[in-house]
Amino acid sequence: EDKVVQSPLSLVVHEGDTVTLNCSYEVTNFRSLLWYKQEKKAPTFLFMLTSSGIEKKSGRLSSILDKKELFSILNITATQTGDSAVYLCAVERGTNAGKSTFGDGTTLTVKP
Amino acid sequence: DGGITQSPKYLFRKEGQNVTLSCEQNLNHDAMYWYRQDPGQGLRLIYYSQIVNDFQKGDIAEGYSVSREKKESFPLTVTSAQKNPTAFYLCASRPSGERNEQYFGPGTRLTVT
What we know:
The complex is a heterodimer of chains A (112) and B (113). Chain A is mainly beta and 112 residues long. Chain A has strands at 3-7, 10-14, 19-26, 30-38, 44-49, 56-58, 61-66, 71-76, 85-93, 100-102, 106-111. In chain A, strands 2, 4, 5, 9, 10 and 11 form a six-stranded mixed beta sheet that branches. In chain A, strands 1-3-8-7-6 form a five-stranded antiparallel beta sheet, with no helix packed on it. Chain A starts with a strand and ends with a strand. In chain A, 33% of the residues are buried. Chain B is an all-beta fold and 113 residues long. Classes of the chains: A mainly beta (112), B mainly beta (113). Chain A binds chain B through residues 4, 6, 9, 31-32, 34, 41-45, 48, 88, 90, 92, 96-105, and chain B through 31, 33, 35, 40-45, 48, 50, 56, 58-59, 90, 94, 99-107.
């Protein structure tokens, strides 16, 4: 059975802090790992990672994948209150294409 | 505007009644998904469909049914056999090809009493 574990489950920081969110996984025939941000209702896509060691970056957010150790991290620098959300990690298999397994998410709260 | 719509936003039902949640997309995506999200948890896959007239069970399909008669539509029926139906339900779609990200609808919050 595929497994995705995110840590920490929740995190409270102050504006300007840097945070690192973790996602470890066990999946048969790994295809990709995706990060989503869920603010109120619909998750929105952040990054897709398929290769080890290649950092994906978008503004203050960045993410990297380690396929040997089976984990990914999502970094957010200079956090803002608008970064407060649940961050979801999902992995997809190469077979059963399209079927993703999600972690339980990390709830990030950024205080002013 | 392209996107995914789910209706209604909030739904209340009495125990023992079947209820159907709507999901429509105009993104021309082949694949569609239904997830359930409980408080403090991630998304659990109920059913998914990669093409019209075909669908597969996800991890928690018991007590649910779906149909995929049109590319744009993927309704989910929560039957009376579902033991704990109160939850937040999210529908998603995904384009074909190498892009793996899913596009999510706004969700339906179902409360069964």
